[in-house]
Give the backbone structure.
Amino acid sequence: MELDLQSFEKKAFEKGYREIAGVDEAGRGPLAGPVVSAAVVLPFVFPVSGVIDSKKLSPKKREELYEKIYEHAVSIGIGIVDHVEIDRINILKASLLSMSISVKNLNPQPDWLLIDGTFQIPSDTPQEAIPKGDALSVSIAAASIVAKVTRDRLMLRYHEDYPQFGFSKHKGYPTIAHKEAIRKYGLCPIHRQTFRGVKEYVAAHGLKLEIGK
């Protein structure tokens, strides 16, 4: 039996909600760069096929769907929380904060939220947290694609500033090549200093942990 990726949206619509936003983030696991979230309100009749969890798509396919989502979406909001704030408040809180920011950047504002994961976000808007929502809701899947492509593009920009770390390839994730680059070159200004794989370098070299104020 084929999974209905609009089932959560339909249930919300039946309850009277009309501006239903899917919300997801990208970048919880990397050792560098921001966490990026997207909130996406799709039309009830969404003419784009193939919108699924971004992790199951090739980079090329994500880029293609990203453009189509922007073409057809009712509204898209982006939320970005940088490495300094991630180190200051921890990655879970930073992820939820970025989701909240993405919702605030929607216009028109939604009246119902579908959140990927098990946690609700800081928002007065009624919401439902859906574990593995990016595989169950087309709105969340669309948000996952937008968040992933947006973050990847940011990391490509950071690669221009810090090419020795290879951000264009691994986007800041803890690959063998990235860890070797840290051992060889040290840290750059966008590394998350509280993350395993980075904090050891901070401690070993007697660096002052810079987590903001």
User: Anything to note?
Assistant: The helical segments are 7-14, 59-72, 83-89, 91-104, 138-161, 167-170, 176-185, 199-204. Strands lie at 20-26, 35-41, 75-81, 112-116, 127-130. The chain has eight helices and five strands.
